[in-house]
UniProtKB/TrEMBL annotation:
It comes from Chryseobacterium culicis. It holds the Pfam family ACR_tran. The keyword Membrane applies. The chain crosses the membrane at residues 359-379, 430-450, 462-485, 524-543, 868-886, 893-912, 924-942, 970-989, 1001-1024. Gene3D superfamilies: Multidrug efflux transporter AcrB pore domain, Multidrug efflux transporter AcrB pore domain like, Multidrug efflux transporter AcrB TolC docking domain, DN and DC subdomains, Multidrug efflux transporter AcrB transmembrane domain. GO terms for molecular function: xenobiotic transmembrane transporter activity. It comes from the Bacteria. Keywords: Membrane, Transmembrane, Transmembrane helix. Coiled coil: none annotated. The keyword Electron transport does not apply. This is Acriflavin resistance protein. GO terms for cellular component: plasma membrane.
Length: 1050
């Protein structure tokens, strides 16, 4: 081979190349983006629109339907899902795979701007954000204080801390969670208004006319250019109380006579609790092109600087750090790399008794890994949990590359050759088989380039990491290894004459005798083996559970609790604190590292916040808990907590949700693995069938938290205006509505007004409202004054107030409504759960026209993932078959090599089933890797067997001899790789259970692969190639191996 010749003739050039790879590789490792997940390019955009005070039905009718009709002009839209709750429309716009998302967002922005014309007056523009890995928080910056209210902390976090955060490259944030924005409150007193024959609308009008913003302009007098500022806007908050309210008489009434002015906050719609105390936190996210690890590390370094700029009684801390996953993965790779290198060296020492050879093999592993990182950086990839998994898997193949070369060199040493000649002959002998092995392994991962959606996004960096490392390792085995072998390995040809058999030689001889005895019954043995493995494989595939990701034993968990619909946030807060107290009693008071809770809804000012954390109303709370120590099973803990709270707090409805970033992104916004949508134009019909299906799901033993999460019976006070009576009193619906807005909401959106104040000169909203503690009964609401006329009408004069139940949430798929059923699963795989749900749906019988039921949640993701991986494996097998046939010029030989694949699959599935693991994205990667290693070993053996067969003409003897010659490198690489994967398979360290199925699949596949390559494969070769021709199929008359050569040169 030219590569080997170049290396041996120019060894210094080889060393320069290796040093260059190390230098630039280490530099790339420092500069490469480190992220939790690869860039998944999810075709999803969120549109959030808030308008305080509007009911869910109003948000649906005035906002959602208008947006949907407008957004349908966007190219590439697949579906539009929307949730409507009080004051909020949250739309999820799904696009088809391959859509240009930059153009899509630009179109949505343009169409949303056009939609503004058709929306209610005063509606603010929507907030539009793309959903991807960068839109999910990687941690929380928590603000605590023993003296300040959460509203004060909100202002400090928003205006004091966020400017420092934005200065950190790559860091992005949402508005602070937990407080309401600072607001100048004009709290009107209905009693005083009635006493002065006035209405809230007159207060609003007075504020609008006497606290205005207008340009000041200039006056030019003489040589001076004067500014002309006016006091159109009051300078001090208390001066708002001095604004007069004209009654039409000589005596003025001032705002202070009918209202109190307060520098406060917007009406509270939600609270955040940190460790049970009201606090504020900021969700920390990162830009799509930024490194998660770098952003988090820079934030941690900036914390002291940010803390110095906080008031003395405010403390900040960074909690729920998601970057630990990538940090742990990096540590695991380092440990596995070191362990793999040491174990490989140990195998070389054990089998070859050569320390210098072991050192050469050990050196190639880090060079290949670092070079792989270099090429990942050059091709725009990041270091993430998938590429790290690829590098971890690549270590096993790297072991194979160098070990086979070193072992073959020792075989040629044993022939009595000189060192230089032995190295040349050994490397040249296996150069082509190793090239073929590399191409076969690359072919195994080649389907990643044809996958789409989530599987393609996840599988691509893994395939590239393995591919780059594999190519570098091959080049090193053909250049660096022979050079170092010449320089380092000691060899005396005379010692070979006195060579005595060692333990392995004796084992190999016994194995050869055993294989020879099986060869006599090769047809029966092969037939029984293949039949058994095919039946066993089919059965194992059916009974092995299937998931998207393996279950993780985490010290963190997230749970959503719901009180009765319409429960006030203050009451929900009491229940949450009681929940946390019970939790301390269950897991240990000192075992909770931190708890973070958000109760109720976000202020309408922050429309983007529900994209990150959505609650349906004041009766809902989302709780995140991190434990200090936890060695048990997280699923068992959750089940214990369900039973515990069912007994302690039966009035609460609880549902556990994913907290790990990987699960949140893969679920694309769904809160549970099982989600079912019942859709149709008639909402009552949807609800009826959803309740029927929910009853059936509750009969499934392993399902948990089954519920219809929608708020369907929200308490309301229906105000029915008598327009005739109102007209008689000189009123119309608009007059009544204006007074109602002030009483039940505020004028924040209907009449914008500002006050500029504070040391930072920030503009704050001025809003007129009625204090919530005043309107504490139907009678108080009915006594609301409506107008300034002499009749002094109140709301009760022109309207009736009737208690009722209204829709608290409205879900839509396009313009069609739907009802959702959600459920968690316990000790069961997702595939089995999906099958049982489909059976439950079928048991409902034929559905009425217009009613549709579909399974959403993680089930479609599972189907897409398994279909992509299975089809990818089949494509890889077909590519390898054709490539081998082209290489060996024989379809028979290609078929012989592929007979190892069923054994590998059975081995992987068997160990997964024995250890209780499922077939998921991680274990499937391990299975595919095992197939690649198995084919590599098979190529190494069969290429030798075919060469011997052509020289001797006996296929059976060729198979036995090839197995005898290649048993040592095959066992060496198998043991080294299996030992290197053992810590991963056991699941050592935090998050180890996330990659343990990968290690188990590899080890199981390797065990069966070794058996099939060394025992079954020679038998298959002896059978299939028994009567095969030894004549070359070449048709070229100039080819010496062609049968046509002798005819033309005789």
């Amino acid at each position: 081979m030219n590569l080997i010749k170049f290396a041996l003739r120019r060894p210094i050039s080889v060393m320069v190349l290796v040093l260059g790879l190390l230098f630039f590789g280490i530099k790339a490792a420092k500069d490469v983006k480190v992220d939790i997940l690869p860039d998944m390019n999810l075709p999803v955009v969120y549109v959030a629109h808030s308008f305080n005070g509007y009911t869910p039905q109003q948000m649906e009718g005035y906002f959602t339907k208008m947006y949907v009709n407008m957004l349908l002009f966007t190219n590439g839209i697949k579906s539009i899902e929307s949730k409507n709750t009080q004051g909020l429309t949250l739309m999820k716009v799904n696009f088809y795979e391959g859509t240009n998302m930059g153009e899509a967002i630009a179109q949505i922005n343009a169409l949303s701007t056009r939609s503004q014309v058709f929306l209610p007056p005063g509606a603010p523009p929507p907030f539009i954000i793309r959903f991807d890995s960068s839109s999910q928080p990687v941690g929380q910056l928590v603000f605590r204080s023993n003296t300040k209210t959460n509203n004060e902390l909100q202002d400090i976090a928003n205006f004091n801390a966020r400017p420092f955060l934005i200065a950190i490259p790559g860091l992005t944030t949402a508005p602070p969670f937990g407080g309401s924005p600072r607001t100048i409150e004009i709290n009107v007193d209905p009693v005083k208004l009635r006493a002065h024959h006035m209405s809230p609308e007159q207060v609003v009008e007075a504020i609008s006319r006497n606290n205005i913003t207008s340009p000041s302009g200039n006056v030019y007098i003489g040589e001076t250019n004067y500014l002309t500022p006016t006091n159109n806007t009051v300078k001090k908050v208390e001066e708002l109380g001095d604004i007069p309210l004209f009654k039409g008489t000589a005596d003025n009434v001032y705002i202070r006579d009918v209202a109190t002015v307060k520098d406060g906050a917007d009406i509270a719609t939600g609270y955040a609790l940190i460790d049970g105390k009201r606090s504020v936190y900021i969700n920390i996210a990162k830009a799509s092109n930024a490194s998660t690890l770098e952003v988090v590390n820079k934030l941690k370094k900036s914390l002291p600087k940010i803390q110095r700029n906080m008031p003395d009684d405010v403390q900040i801390s960074y909690e729920f750090d998601q970057s630990v996953y990538i940090s742990n993965a990096l540590k695991s790779l380092a440990v596995e790399g070191v362990l793999g290198a040491l174990l490989t060296g140990l195998m070389v020492m054990l089998f070859l008794n050569d320390r210098r050879a072991a050192l050469i093999v050990i050196m190639t592993i880090p060079i290949s890994i670092i070079s792989g990182v270099l090429f990942l950086k050059l091709f725009g990839q990041s270091i993430n949990i998938m590429s790290l998994s690829g590098l971890a898997l690549a270590i096993g193949i790297l072991v194979d590359e160098s070990t086979v070369t070193i072992e073959n060199i020792h075989q040629h040493f044993a022939m009595g050759k000189t060192r230089a000649q032995a190295i040349w002959d050994a490397c040249q002998e296996i150069a082509f088989p190793k090239l073929l092995i590399m191409l076969c392994i690359l072919a195994v991962f080649a389907p990643a380039f044809m996958m789409s959606g989530i599987p393609g996004s996840l599988f691509m960096p893994l395939a590239m990491a393995i591919g780059f490392s594999m190519i570098v390792s091959f080049v090193l085995s053909q250049t660096f290894v022979p050079v170092m072998a010449n320089w380092m390995m000691k060899h005396d040809p005379k010692t070979c004459e006195n060579h005595r058999p060692n333990w392995f030689t004796k084992f190999r001889d016994r194995f050869t005798v055993f294989l020879s005895s099986l060869m006599k019954r090769k047809k029966m043995m092969v037939s029984l083996s293949l039949a058994s493995v095919l039946c066993l494989g089919t059965g194992l595939y059916q009974i092995t559970g299937k998931d998207v990701l393996p279950a993780v034993n985490s010290r963190q968990f997230q749970v959503r609790i719901k009180a009765a619909e319409g429960t006030r946030i203050e009451v929900t807060e009491i229940k949450v604190k009681k929940f946390l107290e019970h939790l301390k009693g269950k897991v240990g008071k000192d075992n909770i590292a931190i708890s973070s809770v958000f109760i109720g809804q976000h202020p309408s000012t922050f429309a983007v916040s529900p994209i990150y954390l959505y609650n349906a109303g004041p009766h809902e709370a989302l709780i995140q808990v991190a434990l200090k120590k936890f060695d048990g099973n997280s699923d068992e803990l959750k089940d214990e907590l369900r039973k515990y709270y069912k007994e302690k707090m039966p009035d609460l409805q609880i549902s556990f949700e994913p907290i790990e970033l990987t699960e949140k992104i893969l679920s694309q916004g769904t809160n549970t693995p099982i989600e079912i949508r019942v859709s149709g134009m008639m909402k009552k019909m949807n609800r009826m069938y959803a309740e029927k299906l929910l009853t059936k799901l509750k009969e499934i033993e392993y399902m948990r938290d089954q519920q219809i999460p929608q708020s369907m019976s929200y308490p309301a006070l229906q105000i029915n205006i008598d327009r005739t009576r109102a007209a008689q009193l000189g009123l119309d619906a608009q007059d009544i509505a204006k007074s109602l807005v002030t009483a039940t909401a505020s004028t924040r959106y209907t009449n914008k007004n500002f006050w500029v104040g504070g040391m930072m000169g920030i503009a704050y909203d001025v809003q007129v409202q009625t204090p919530q503690n005043i309107l504490n009964s139907k009678e108080e609401l009915a006594s609301l004054p409506l107008s300034k006329n002499s009749d002094r009408p109140v709301l009760g004069d022109v309207a009736t107030i009737t208690p009722s139940k209204e829709l608290g949430e409205s879900y839509n798929l396009g313009t069609m409504g739907y009802t959702t059923i959600t459920a968690n699963i316990h000790k069961t795989d997702l595939e089995q759960a999906s099958k049982d749900v489909k059976k439950a749906i079928e048991s409902l019988g034929e559905l009425p026209k217009g009613v549709n039921i579909e399974l959403s949640g993680m089930s479609p993701v599972l189907d897409e993932t398994m279909n992509s991986l299975s089809s990818g494996l089949l494509i890889a097998a077909a590519v390898i078959f054709l490539m081998l046939a082209a290489t060996f010029q024989s379809f028979r030989v290609s078929l012989v090599i592929l007979t190892t694949v069923p054994f590998v699959i059975v081995g992987s599935l068997a160990l997964l089933k024995i250890t209780g693991s499922t077939l998921n994205l991680q274990s499937y990667m391990g299975l595919i890797m095992s197939v690649g290693v198995s084919i590599a070993n098979a190529v190494l053996l069969i290429s030798n067997a075919e060469m011997i067969r052509k020289s001797t003409g006996n296929a059976s003897e060729a198979g036995i001899e090839a197995a005898r010659l290649r048993i040592r490198p095959i066992i060496m690489t198998t043991l080294a790789m299996a030992a290197g994967m053992l810590p991963m398979a056991i699941g050592f360290g935090e998050g180890g259970d996330q990659v343990s199925p990968l290690g188990r699949a590899v080890i199981g596949g390797l065990i069966f692969s070794t058996f099939s390559v060394l025992v079954i494969l020679p038998l298959v070769f002896g059978w299939i190639q028994n009567n095969a021709s030894i004549i070359s199929p070449s048709l070229d008359p100039e080819d010496e191996e062609s049968i046509h050569y002798s005819n033309t040169h005789s």
